[in-house]
Request: fold
Amino acid sequence: MYFDKELKALKRANRFRQRYIFDENLLDLASNDYLGLASNKTIFKKAVKQISSLQSSGPKASMIVNGYSKIHQQFEQLLCKVNNFDDGIIVGSGFLANMALIESMVRKNDILLIDEDYHASGILASKLVQGKVEIFNHNDIEDLEKKITQHSKLNIKNSRIIIAIEGIYSMQGDIAPKEIATIANDYNALLLVDEAHSSGVIGSNLLGWFDHFNIQIRANHIKMGTLGKAYGSYGAYILASKETISFLENRAKPIIYSTAPSLIDTAIGYQALKYILKNKDKLKKKIKKRQNMLKEILDIDIDGLIVPIEINNNQKVLDIKEELKTKGFNVGAIRQPTVKKAIIRLIAKIDISKNNLKELLNLLNSQQ
Reply:
């Protein structure tokens, strides 16, 4: 009764959403479990063993009270070591990590320059900041530098510049240009890179965007990654300088006021990272084979494993999704406001056999 009109409008526009139990008989090409590690029982068993020696299986309090566990610390230390960052902190989710970073860092007189296709959590957080917010055109380095130059001419005292981008963008699947790191360094700007969809998928060590471009880590660099994608778990992490992490411990509300991240999820993320590093060469070969298949069958070049197919018709993407379900495949039917134009979004997950992926791609080719 209170929201009847809004729900009816969503249904008329074919934008209505609802939860449903995933049919495990369908081949999953809709989730962000890029490497199939969410189903890896060896990783799960190792994680269970890791937390079994602890008195409590739950964190019980915030990180700042007494919810900080040696499991959190072990994971943070490993993440820092392999990514070449000075310090890090575990956060409950990628959404909370973006809220923590953006809401706390952009103070009065500062400017946040955020890519127009940045994740919804970052856009929401930008509404809460005390400083100025400028949205720059997607992956447009000229527009970014123009906006920085305009701000710099104002000569605002004690003004920091914060640039927020994604390593690989979640819907389009495209990668942020390396030149943004150069711009950030040239203007002494803080560079926040959301690596939710790039960590575990690109880079010589499968560590993401910084790794992919072999960027030397500096004090102005901040890396945020999630455990809910390639790491097959739940949670997130922030890597940065010791000063930045200390600032977040003292100013970031989602860190100070929320319960510390789940111990079992953190342990799974820790074991998943060790697995990825140990098996990186084998995993990279599987990723490359699927990228080649996409190019061969659909003539689509992908940077990671995200495959967006523009349909631009809400009803049609739903129809295609349902048709593919009858063939045994589950793909994403993504509509507004997540994207501007409706797309079929499939994930070329490496735990899906090449034959099954080939069958799906041929089916999609016939739909276009």
Summary: The first strand starts at residue 27 and ends at 28. Residues 26 and 326 are 9 Å apart (CA to CA). The mean pLDDT is 94.
